[in-house]
Amino acid sequence: MRISCRMIATMVVVGWWSCLNATAQNHLAPSELVQKLRSDKTTDEARKQLELLANSDPVAKQYLAAQLPPMIQLGPKSCPQSDIVDLDARWHACPWYNAVELSGKLRIAETATALAPWISWREEGPLLPTLEAQLVFHPAAKALAAMGDPAIPILQQVLSSGNPKDHSVAVRVLCIIHTERAKAVLREDLPRETDPAVKTMIKNVLRE
Amino acid sequence: MPITASPQTFGTDGQDPLLLGKDGTVYIAGYNSAGNDSLAALDSSGTVKWTASSPGKSPRLSTVMADGSVVFQSMQADDAMHVLIADSNGNVSPLFASPTDGSDIGPAVPNPFYYAPALFQLNNASYWTSSTWYVPDGSGGIDFTSGPISGPGSDTDCSAWTSAGGEPQRQSVGNPTATVMVNFTGAQSKGDQLTFSGAGACGQNLGLRYCPNASWSFYIEGVATVSDDASKWKIRQDAVITRAGNTKDTQGVLHAVNDSFNSKVIPGSDDPCVLNDTNPGCQGVVSVQQPAGQKTIYWLDHPGSLYQASADAVWDSLLENGLFNSKACNRFGICANVKWFIKLEVDPGSVLNCAQSLDGTLDNPITCP
After folding, report:
1. DSSP B189
2. Nearest C-alpha of chain A: how many angstroms from B182?
3. What is the least distance, in Å, from the CA of B282 to any CA of chain A?
4. Cβ–Cβ of B283/A197 closer than 8 Å?
5. Which ipTM did the prediction report?
6. Exposure pattern of A110-127 as b/e (b: 16+ CB <10 Å)?
């Protein structure tokens, strides 16, 4: 009987310790989560936890505003080689991709400058026109679009950069942002556009 | 308020926790102060007409009937969405009740993950004793068709109203209906004013086309004919794509590629864009024509592959297979759909293999002209 009680007490202590440990793991500090975000093996899980955390904790979001730009500057070449067949899973196995996605989902304006060089960078993927329009395969552009007005100054720089690929994606991003400020930039840009499809797209946005 | 309205369902099917009856009665699905799933009806002055406990979780309002009763779905103990009705006094019963014991003999859409059905491919067809197949669709709606349980006409895998055994006459009288089809060759329909545009597009005829150094795409036109009004329907689409082949980098080195993509990872992402689409990603893009007062809906698509495989490589050879499900759904969850496919073959040297490339519906593949 005494042994059983001791066993029960031990189990309770072990259980309590496990619970504490699990709780601690579920509430990692932002710095620990960013470390995990940088690791190929833990990056996707860290992205999910950071998104939850930063949505409810302004301090965590501020921390990310400082940490994400250098990660984004590394560029997509920093992504690990992967044999994952499912493209969505493959993208999320890359720390750079997750840093870009977080910057958009959390609308961290401080990342706009770091995102700009990758605005026309396209993930590998099939041609599905509706997804192209939504920039699903253009993670940096999608993040800038999600950011809204704070991204507009950097988009204006891209528009005048002279790179035709970057230019057309920047126009698309401005169309998606669709605020009065974005429309003003598009209105100014319209006379300079030569592609009839791009002109039509801008006119559609300005007409609405 | 007797209950708190549920947040709008995640996804793009826009499930609204409120419905408005023509007499001004407001129907609300949500939860009461104890946190239990509930329904309530309020008159136009805000007075509570009735409240009712939902027999299952996550009640989703569907239709207000002429007599003031409201049809809704909720997830019951079998982890499936059942269809129920609350009468004008708030008494809840199965919409399709057995005349003998009142038990539920209607459709039940499996929903094992407690999420909006739109997030899952809930498409297992089931058979009712009333000689009717019901086919739950991914949007939470139900497609109906009549026909035998086996033998000719029993195939419900394609459009609910266009299957060989379908008999629209057996639809409930007054229910709006739709037929959906896809055109793969020739010119666009006479009434279709849309133009192909966007990434990699060139030309306006239907069919497989190579746009030099830009893309290989299948240009298709979707056509839905509805019994009521085109503006009351929403065109939805999802796609599953697999690719295998080799890309060639700027040094001429080949790299093997093998991947797949399912548009359902981003719900609604392959739905064609309408004028004033609520999806911000659709701003400025219109690929659906569905003016009010007309009964025909057109939409365009041109899936395939870009010539450029990545920032520094082009496709040297490629086999791409895509399966698409295009559907027209109205706000009551009535849907008609058609499944179609593409098979794109590009031979080494980035040469389109027209003879081996196909598109079409599953039972009618069309070869390259």
Report:
1. P
2. 16
3. 6
4. no
5. 0.84
6. bbbebbbebbbbbbbbbb
Rg of the Cα trace of chain A? 22
Euclidean distance between CA atoms A93 and B56, whole angstroms: 38
Copy the structure tokens of residue B92: 């809840």
Is the CB of B215 inside 8 Å of chain A's CB atoms?
Answer: yes
Q: B29: closest CA among B70, B76, B68?
A: B70
E strands, B76-204, where? 80-86, 92-94, 108-110, 126-127, 132-136, 142-146, 178-183
Chain B interface, mutation test: which of A107, A123, A130, most B Cβ atoms within 10 Å? Answer: A130
Judging contacts by C-beta atoms under 8 Å, the chain A residues touching residue B305 are: 126-127
What pLDDT digit, counting tens, does each position of B299-352 carry?
999 999 999 999 899 999 999 999 999 999 998 899 999 999 999 999 999 999
B80-86 vs B92-94, strand pairing mode: antiparallel
What pTM did the predictor assign?
Answer: 0.68
Contact B286 A204 (CB under 8 A): yes
A96 touches chain B (CB under 8 A): no
Quote the CA–CA distance of B266 and A196 in Å, as a whole number: 30
